[in-house]
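Recall the central idea of this unit: under ordinary conditions, the amino acid sequence of a chain determines the structure it adopts. In this exercise we apply that idea directly, starting from the sequence alone.
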Amino acid sequence: MTRRSIILSAALAALTIPCALSAQAAVPHYSDAYPVGALIDNPATKAVLDARIPGFSNGPQIPQMRGMALKDVEAAPTSGISMATRKLINDDLAAIPVGAPLLLPAKP
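Accordingly, the structure predicted from this sequence is:
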């Protein structure tokens, strides 16, 4: 290996490391922009919804809301979700990466 190829290899490696780090930092997280149905179907995000709004996932309006983003549901006057509650939910959802393993029930 020549000195020039060693320098070129080192320079290429130096360029690759920041790209790999930025790809790791760009992991998407859940938010109130996700459809209610998707949030309810994931046990981790469903737990967030039910913790902030007890019984939300079993509400009678869920079939109509499944395709709506949570932020759009909050905007409806009859939703019963305040802007403050939606913000708390959004903050909690932001801690859950999309594609994270689903929470499974513990085996007895």
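The radius of gyration is 21 Å.
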